Amino acid sequence: MRFNFFKKEPVDFYTPVSGKIVPLEEVPDPVFSQKMMGDGLAVIPSAGNIVSPVNGTVILVAATKHAVGLRADDGTEILIHVGLETVALDGKGFNVAVKDGDKVSAGQLLIEVDLEYISTNAKSTITPIVITNSEDGKKQYVFTEEKEGTAGKTVLFTASAK
């Protein structure tokens, strides 16, 4: 008889921003569409605020405020990159509510985004959510079939130990 005392439960990652969920391959930037940074999905936002998709720790806040990296409590690392070519905005249109090292809960505000400003001044508002350590082979990821997501409510993907 085998006991799985140490088998961890699957972890749900929620949509960090409300909008249309699209495959990463549809992001008009090869770094994301060719999964150079890892596997994931993207959201075309219908609202601006970015919330934490999971319980974890902030491991990166871009100096230009357009991206945040998180390490979930299960070890999965994700990058939420708001829009394309938003680095050039130099922080305008973004108000970051967290800093490196902060513990966050699913649904907690990470970044306030002026979606109108971003849509006018950046290439795109599409927001890739990338699992940056998806290639380590320790977990398997099941991505949603949903086409619309509500921030903090719709499961984007589930991570479980292999």
Keywords:
3-stranded antiparallel sheet, mainly beta, 7% helix, 40% strand, kinase, 162 residues
Walk me through this protein's architecture.
The chain is mostly beta strands and 162 residues long. The protein has a single domain, classed as Glucose Permease (Domain IIA) (Distorted Sandwich). Helices cover 7% and strands 40% of the residues. It has 2 helices and 14 strands; from the N terminus they run E-E-H-E-E-E-E-E-E-E-E-H-E-E-E-E. The strands form 3 sheets. It has an 8-stranded antiparallel β-sheet, with no helix packed on it. It has a 3-stranded antiparallel β-sheet with strand order 1-14-12, with no helix packed on it. Strand 5 and strand 6 form a beta hairpin. The chain is globular.
List the helices and strands and how they pair.
Layout: E1 11-14, E2 19-23, H1 30-33, E3 39-45, E4 50-51, E5 56-61, E6 67-72, E7 77-81, E8 94-96, E9 103-104, E10 109-113, H2 115-121, E11 127-131, E12 139-143, E13 148-149, E14 155-161
Antiparallel strand pairs: 1-14, 2-3, 2-13, 3-11, 4-10, 5-6, 5-9, 6-7, 7-11, 8-10, 12-14
In short:
Keywords: Kinase, Phosphotransferase system, Sugar transport, Transferase, Transport. The protein is mainly beta and 162 residues long.
